[in-house]
Amino acid sequence: MVAIKITYEGQLRCKAVHKPSGQVILTDAPTDNMGKGEFFSPTDLAAAALGTCMLTIMGIAANKYKIDISGATADVIKQMSNVPSRQIGTLRVTINVPKALTDEQKRILENAAKGCPVHKSLSSSISIPIEFVYAK
């Protein structure tokens, strides 16, 4: 269990404190929703959570199977939907692994990424196309 203390700072800004480490994240409402957009929005954090979770779980699998994925990146494009209400509509993920890998190594990593807890926790109403790109 992890405790996070969130305080509304005013002007559509919140401060979240990760209790175990003391690390702070500020959020703003986006400019298209009456905010300043100076920090991640809460839905931006959801997109970032998906990408970081996928890379982290891939890293765990890579360590277990001795696969080098150093330098791997995840790009997540968040697209909002207004139907039926304002919500995340699509999270398009591209994972780039700058290493040549075997088909079996790719299968291990792709299954790990798709099994990350954030991916499994997101609503089925969100479209989450995932593309894996590997060096040749």
Q: What would your notes on this structure say?
A:
- The structure is a single chain.
- The chain is an alpha+beta fold and 136 residues long.
- It has two domains: 4-33; 42-134, GMP Synthetase, Chain A, domain 3, CATH 3.30.300.
- 30% of the residues lie in helices and 32% in strands.
- Strands 1-2-3 form a three-stranded antiparallel β-sheet, with no helix packed on it. It has a three-stranded mixed β-sheet with strand order 4-5-6, covered by helices on one side.
- Helix 1 (42-65) packs antiparallel against helix 2 (103-114).
- The radius of gyration is 17 Å and the shape is globular.
- The model has no long low-confidence stretch (mean pLDDT 96).
Fraction of helical residues: 25-40%
**What global shape is seen?**
globular
Give the N-to-C terminal Cα separation.
41 Å
Look at the structure and give the CATH class of the largest domain. Alpha Beta
What is the structural class?
A: alpha+beta
- Radius of gyration using CA atoms only: 17 Å
List the quaternary state of the chains.
single chain
Count of strand segments: 6
Low-confidence stretches: none
Give the averaged pLDDT, no decimals. 96
- Strand order, largest beta sheet: 1-2-3
